[in-house]
Amino acid sequence: MPFLALEALTKRFGDQVAVDALDLAVEPGEFVSLLGPSGCGKTTTLQMIAGFVEPTSGGITLEGRDLLGMQPNQRGLGIVFQSYALFPHMTAAENVAFGLEMRRVARAERDQRVAQTLELVGLGALADRYPRRMSGGQQQRVALARALVIRPRILLLDEPLSNLDAKLREEMQIELRQIQRTVGTTTILVTHDQAEAMALSDRIVVMNKGKVEQIGRPHEAYEKPASAFVAGFLGKTNVLPGAVRRENDGAFAQIGDGSWPVPDATGAQVSVSVRPEKIDFIDAAACSIGGTVRTRIFQGNHWLYQIETPCGLVTVIRQNSGQAVPAEGTTVRLTWRAEDMAIHPAAEAAS
Amino acid sequence: MRTAAMRPYLLSAPALLLFTGVVLIPIAMTVILSFHDWGQYKGIEPVFILKNWREIIDDSYFHEMFLRTLRISVLVTLIAAVFGAPEAYILNRMRNPWKGIFLLVILGPLLISVVARTLGWALLFGGETGVINKALLNLGVITAPIPFMFTETGVVIALSHVLMPFMVLSVWAGLQRLDPQVENAALSLGASHATVLRRIVLPQVMPGILSGSIIVFALAASAFATPAIIGGRRLKVASTLAYDEFLNTLNWPLGAAVAVLLLVALVAIVVGSSRLVERRYAQVFG
Fold first, then answer.
1. Which of A88, A89, A150 sits opposite B189 (nearest CB)?
2. Which of A41, A341, B110, B162 matches a 20 to 30 Å C-alpha distance to A324?
3. Are B175 and B203 in contact (CB under 8 A)?
4. How many Å apart are CA B178 and CA B145, to the nearest integer?
5. Which residues of A touch B (CB under 8 A)?
6. Whole-prediction pTM value?
């Protein structure tokens, strides 16, 4: 039995479906991200777990017990809000101690746990400071400490890093991951930042328009996207139109002037997505398409190309290995391995 | 260089002139007036004596007036805070269009003259046959009619109603700065709804309640129309006392002394309490 289970969880606002029959099973100690563009239902899902939004239908169970009958203040979950939602009239230590006070933890133990948790998030020296006098990153840490100190059964993070600048966000990602590993709390993160989701999570739930597009490990979702949406949302990708024809020795996808062997099960018209870093230059081969280098940008550790092909612009990223590179305006042939293609029905690409 | 340094003064000069002309000079003249002598037959004599001030300080009649003014103002402030703060909180939690409608209901009376609103209360109170007394008697809440007209009770009720919008507005402004997620955060940490209100919401709207209290107190202490209509000649407060000295007894110097004392006391209380509020909350809400 999973630790946390969402079963056919649905939320409608009027005739608008925010979350559509979401199924998810989370294992103890796991770090799961709900990833998607704004309005995909990820925050609504988190709020239903937290108890701030009542689901229209479906169930949520934690360790086999039904969560839906419980008020938010009985669920025992730790939540870090996007705005941090710190109590502005309390110091950092008082903020962290609040949850323990509500649990009637004895004074001595309370003080010890508050100090310990502030130390864990690296704020031991700022215990007596008010939130107003802290930087965004420090407030973020107080919010995290406040959620962790109650030893929650689940930690819910609602876009916790989106208000921080890029450099700080990267530092906090690494730290958040380390803290989560140390404490071992099952964690659910809501984010629209695919890099953040991939960096932090054991598994990613990619959502779009209230529906789950794919649930999988970051690497798996990146390499084997289940839909054109996932391929486009997780990292950069090239989407190319292809026509599938069946021959005696299997099916082939015709892309531009090249053709690649594909599994037979796909439809006649497909859209093929290929990651920029999986594409290589080649002299001549069956599995390749021709094009002209339109722009070439040097980015230190790699080169970024835009290649004009019959199928549209294709982005290519090549490692800067010190070898000669094609100049702008030259004609090149592009190739990639058949297994690096993600093939989806063509209609999907339009959306 | 020189003109650049002068520019701010030159730019604010017109406003400063107006302020001096319509505020500072009249106040200064009132202060001077309070030291002049007055007699039934000789009128005002421009001399410098402490007669009026001594009269106010020695005569228990004046003590009673000022204590009554203070008592009414404090009561009105308390009632406005106790009813106005929850009113603002509930209003803030409402959804549109109800929020807009009830905001209009609460603030609408500000558009009506204080005199009209107070006369409304006078009709409701209206002696033993007033609407309120009749209703309470018929409901069996009271056995004898409550005297509202010409009593402190009546003045306090009417003033509280007249000044309530200022408290609601002030608390409302404080609530706007409240992050709605903060209440959810406290709930998720295991607090009950009552605890959230007491430990999280109330301390955060406290500055709003206190600044609202300062406004309501100042307006209650200097209110004229409401005490004049509900309190009448029988129940005088500092402002109606000054009015009577000026226009009925024609003892301008004594009236000026009452007015100046009211002004000084008010300024002292208002400045003192806002200093206190600012110091108390500077660190938290800076």
1. A150
2. A341
3. no
4. 45
5. 50-52, 71-79, 81-83, 85-89, 98-99, 102-103, 130, 132-133, 146-147, 150
6. 0.81
